[in-house]
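Chain and backbone:
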Amino acid sequence: MGLNRFSLPVAAAIMMINASLLVQGCLEEERTALLQIKTSMFDPNYMASPLLSWGNDAHCCSWAGVSCDNITGRVNEIDLFDVRGWFIDPSMGDWYLNATLFLPFQELNTLDLGFNDIAGYVANEGFERLSRLNKLESLYLGFNNFNNSILSSLKGLSLKHLNLDYNRLKGSIDTKDFDSLSELEELDLRENEIENFVTSTGFERPGSLDKLEILDLSSNRISDSNLSFLKGLSSLKHLHLDNNQFKGSMEMKEFDSLSKLVELRLQENEIQNFATSTGFERPGSLDKLEILDLSSNRISDSNLSFLKGLSSLKQLYLYNNQLKGPMDMKG
């Protein structure tokens, strides 16, 4: 009995010491993998790269951009933002990523590869290979040169946050490419050249984006004011459609299914009016909307009756439009 009384705290102390050693020294397998990433991505001409210091000491959990779990000592976050530099000599040609370099990191939760001038991925070594990393939730690929093909390579990932802003997505996007990303909560596609979404039923297919809360499509080339592709995004709270090419009349019934929407950004378009007879007063409409930005459009009708039903509205932006004369505020 006496031995058992002391065995538990002794075992706990040993575990704490082991955990401390793991955190300080990191796992050798993961240290080796990080050095392989450095070899693959490091540009010796870019002296500001955080990778320059990798390998200077054995404790990889303290390396720039690397974070580890306090208990297991395993790498759970790798921040490689701007490690290659953006203004790379064109004569060096396009650079393609080998995503399998990240497979050793079994507890990886967040991976940031932004601002690295990545053109794509090595054949058969794309992001689909990371489907085994079931803890990977956040993937940041902004400020690169990925084209539309990147979307199909993301199948099988359990992401909650996906950023593809400032890339080279163009033209029509097939919404079925997002079908497997059923856990996604945030999708950032701003600053591309997307014109529309090819779909017959929106995101209403089983296993689609019914958990998505934030969708940023700002600064694209979306010109079709028919927003039927938004159907099925039943959890959406924040929608950014600013700085696109919406013109003339916008049919507001397309927003009816977004009953949880809190923020709607439509500024910097060329919207003239809203085609609606009853505003947002239809059942299941935007009665939770708190922020509506319609600034910098061409709205000239001072009758704001289309705002009826927005009972939760707290912020309304209408500056830099063509509103003139008396304004009927009773709407």
The helical segments are 2-25, 28-41. Residues 10-23 have pLDDT under 50 and may be disordered.
